[in-house]
Design brief:
There is one protein chain. The protein is an all-alpha fold and 231 residues long. Helix content is 74%, strand content 0%. Helix 7 packs across helix 8. It is elongated, with a radius of gyration of 25 Å. The chain starts with 14 loop residues before the first helix and ends with a helix.
Length: 231
């Protein structure tokens, strides 16, 4: 009668250990992809950097593609976490917008490789319908649109299409981090945030010019209404 060999039970998986290991891999991957580029980075290079066997990487990520995209996704997840933490204790709605802008710029200023990996994704994964940045931006913008609606209802923002507000602020933020990455920041993120908030909140026109433009707009609307009534 054949002898039945019992396998020793493997070490039970520790969720916390797995989460830490995954974070270690993604941290190393972010730096390595940013430094060497997607094509020049090999899984073995990453395994050596983390100090694990290549097989361990594949247990967490089945391919280099999935690892890269997970690293890009993690950047955007951590961005939201950073902004949420920064505004958590800010009661005034306008101050929350100001602090969110400051936190956003700080997040990328501290780790420029976060911008680099977003650029690399667009270069090497052009077949994706929506890049990671856009996927997260579309989700996150909804809560800010609700925030702006609340400020308009309170009379603290002038009435205008909500999309205009969110698009302009979003484009300013992303345009700033991309410009900083390519040309180098000319100012600290704190100064950039202060300048951006001042222009967004106060505009560039003097009070007199702003009032004049408002009057001209009213005249234009009245003339258009009269013309329409004669047709």
């Amino acid at each position: 009668m054949p002898v039945r060999v019992l396998k020793k039970p493997g070490r039970p998986s520790d969720p916390q250990h797995c989460a830490r290991r995954r974070d270690e891999i993604l941290d190393a991957a972010l730096l390595l992809f940013a430094q060497r580029g997607y094509l020049q980075t090999e899984m073995q290079d990453l395994a050596d950097k983390v100090g694990v066997g290549k097989g361990t990487l594949y247990r967490y990520f089945p391919s280099k593609d999935s690892l890269f995209l997970a690293a890009a996704d993690r950047v955007m997840v951590r961005l939201r976490e950073a902004v949420d933490t920064a505004i958590a204790d800010v009661a005034d709605p306008l101050k929350r917008v100001e602090q969110a802008i400051r936190s956003f710029l700080q997040f990328f200023s501290e780790r420029p490789e976060r911008v680099e990996i977003l650029f690399q994704e667009r270069a090497h994964f052009k077949d994706r319908k929506k890049p990671t940045l856009l996927q997260h931006r579309e989700v996150n913008v909804e809560r800010w649109r609700a925030h702006y609606r609340g400020l308009m209802a309170q009379g603290r923002l002038r009435q205008m299409p909500i999309d205009r507000v969110s698009d302009v602020i979003g484009d300013l933020l992303y345009g700033t981090i991309f410009s900083n990455y390519f040309t180098g920041p000319r100012k600290s993120f704190d100064v950039q945030a202060t300048d951006m908030v001042d222009v967004i909140f106060s505009g560039i026109l003097s009070a007199e010019e702003s009032e004049k433009r408002g009057q001209d707009a009213k005249v234009g609307c009245t003339s258009s209404a009269k013309d329409a009534s004669h047709q």
